[in-house]
Amino acid sequence: MKQYTLRWFIVLLVALAVPAAVTGQDWKGRVDLDGKVTNADGVGLPQTTVTAIFVSSATWAELRGSPIVETGTGPDPETADGDGEFELDNLKPGAWRITIAAGHLGYGAEILELDVAERDNDDIEVVLPTLQELLDQATADFGASNFSGARASYEKIFAALPANVDLHQAIAATYQGEGLHAEALGHYDALLEAWEGGAPAPTPESPGEVILQAMLSAGSAGQYDRMHGYIDDLDDPLPADAETAFIDLSGNTLMDAEEFDHAVRVLGVAIDRAPNSALPYYYRGMAHIRLENDDVAIADFNQFVELSPSETPQVTQAKDLLTKLQPQ
Fold this sequence. Notes:
Layout: E1 28-38, E2 49-56, H1 60-63, E3 78-79, E4 85-91, E5 94-101, E6 109-116, E7 124-127, H2 131-143, H3 147-160, H4 167-177, H5 181-196, H6 206-220, H7 224-232, H8 242-256, H9 260-273, H10 279-290, H11 294-307, H12 313-325
Parallel strand pairs: 1-7
Antiparallel strand pairs: 1-4, 2-3, 2-5, 5-6
Helix pairs in contact: 2-3, 3-4, 4-5, 5-6, 6-7, 6-8, 8-9, 8-10, 9-10, 10-11, 11-12
């Protein structure tokens, strides 16, 4: 899928939102773990928040390839002392996800997948990267199409700066890059919900641009009702890339999936919003041909030819089709 307009804004916040305590007793056991968090120079980082969530009584190796569903339970978050040391007590053996997020401006977070044994566990020793290091790594990985690597870095930034909801867009883009569109939609929806709830969007155009990306992912995921819902949410004026996105969605994704009715509906929106734009008529005409709606296709091709400023290959094809479709 083409990426049309992709923006995310990394805001370095001084305040760190501390995760709320989780409830439940699924995680309770008799294992105690010690740990220490430092920077690259070996200096302990006090006021670092350590959140442990129990995943399963299995190990991470046993869980590979299976959907990971966290229990949502674990001890209250711990805060590292002045030397960066912390303790996690009364843990159950099994797979745990440990998030260590610095309460210091400029540092990110580390997210560990940890197998806790009944005894003889090593101490947890973590060196936290800076936010700039994580951002540089994410940018490099994304540019190299290492989307999972970029996502891991963005998630570590997000763990340290949970109030920076705009990071949902960056994370969603990594899922899109891998073709994991259902996962991308979760982040797009979370971002749109946050903006609707009062979080400031980076620019007035940002919500529309995100809705377009969500629309593209929904179409690729085959979630057509959801796709049309995003289209209905687009305000006037449309984002600058809207027509290109509508054409790509219809001419490629939907028509490749032989969803010609959906393609006609999407292109109808493009035409209603910009009736003097030529290309949507061409693609809608092609969809109507596949639906054997020849009369409607003829009207669309005639309009396309009339609006086209030059003799492109598509204009030539439309004229050839008109010659075949129109009665002599």
